[in-house]
Amino acid sequence: MKESLHLQQDLRQQQRLTPLQVQFVRMLEMTGPEIETEVERSLEDMPALEIAEASDADQPDDNEFNESPEEMQAADFANDDDTPSYMLEARNHSYDDQHYEPIAVNDEASLVEMLSTQLADFDLNEREKLIASYIIGNLDGNGYLNRSLQAIADDIAFTQGIDVSLDEMNSGWQHVRRLDPAGVGAADLRDCLLLQLRRKPESEVNKLAEDIVNHYFDLFTKKHYRRLLERLDVSDDQLRAAIDQISRLNPKPGNQQGDTAIESTGRQIVPEFLVEPDGNNLTVTLLNNIPDLTISQTFSDESMVQGATPRQRQEALTFMRSRRDEAANFIKTLKLRQATLFSVMTAIAKIQRDFFMTGDETKLKPMILKDVAALTGNDLSVISRATASKYVMTVGGLYPLKFFFNEKPREEEDATFHQIADAMRRIIDAEDKSSPLSDEAITARLTELGIGVARRTVAKYRERLGYPVARLRKEI
Looking at CB atoms within 10 Å, which of 18, 201, 247, 410 has the fewest? Predict the structure, then answer.
């Protein structure tokens, strides 16, 4: 076998981001609370980074002395963790009073915890409690039991070494179905609604509603009301009252429990910007609570570096310079993020000026990423990241930045999605509910208003607005 060497030229084009660019992209995608947390973390991790001292204008007058004795004592400690507890609270009690330290607790019980607590009210032996507890543990977030009783019995046999019959499993399931909130332990939606209706007081309306769900659930879900009237032999008012009763039931009983205060706080939306009218102009404010950062004087003055030998001094200088450069890059990237966000928001406010002045969504203009990029000079990817998960407070309320981007349905059409959506909303809300308009009919109505869109566009916008098809919008 002969061996040979070959030379080959290969031309490739690669794009690589510098570490500074990667850091900028990551910080640009962060929301306000996230970037504040990042700054706090960096202040702890970067020894050369510190908060800039306030200017002389911000300092209080030296001639004014407003500190109380307690504040002067507290100033001797670095932070609240080092400060003795007696200095952080008023103790207007005698020395022998009981004192309870406040602790953060989660005062909301989960669905499993709440249902398990209710089992104590039932006269069950340990075996029955075990079976019911396993069934509760297999409920999904909505409170439904999606697993078979046999599969749960197999789990009990495998983990506890106890053989359980299907009769015992079914008995435990019935116990769970009697717990609150009504509807937990249901096998499906129909079963869930029936469990809730059977808990209600006896009345003609509740009896008719239970009959509909139990025997005519398919006709009810498809809104075949005429056929229901024929089958049940009732009046329009009676059927309307029964359907109204069914519509008030909770299809997801498990969701009303376990919504803890911690989870609620995590879902709070914090606006990144404030845009408000100022006469004939708009004022754009960046709402981040970020302090001014600077490089520590200790890492700026190289003359302070000492070393027993030239090598040790050189190593110390290298360490100091690397930490100083790290802090300088962070400050530079943070300022670039803030400037980019401000320029992007300013460009959006300029394009959508009519909306920000009035809060009227119908005055939104067609706008895409290219329009903002043309005003700011930034790349499309930068605009996309700068607007992701960011919110702005306006005279009309709180809006995500992505809300302001909307394309024309057609190139020759001047109407925006929001204008078409507003017209569609008015048309659908004013329709005859006993005979709702089809997508073709809505398209025709829009054409009469001077808005020319295709039927498939109407269908797409209708779904985005949360309206079902005409058949499912039908009422008696």
Answer: 201
